[in-house]
Backbone:
């Protein structure tokens, strides 16, 4: 099962939309584990919306 998620950075007033099959691991990647990419510049991220998709 996949989900589409919306993250929001209150500190930078920026949003990010993504899709994953493992929301917890992906969220941790956005906030802690990643060392490069778009989302590291706007930490911390808060998950403000999730929609699950059955396929």
Residues:
């Amino acid at each position: 099962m996949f989900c589409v998620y919306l993250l929001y950075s209150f500190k930078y007033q920026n949003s990010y939309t993504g899709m994953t099959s493992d929301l917890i691991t992906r969220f941790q990647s956005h906030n802690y584990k990643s060392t490069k990419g778009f989302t590291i510049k706007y930490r911390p991220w808060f998950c403000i919306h999730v929609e699950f998709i059955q396929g």
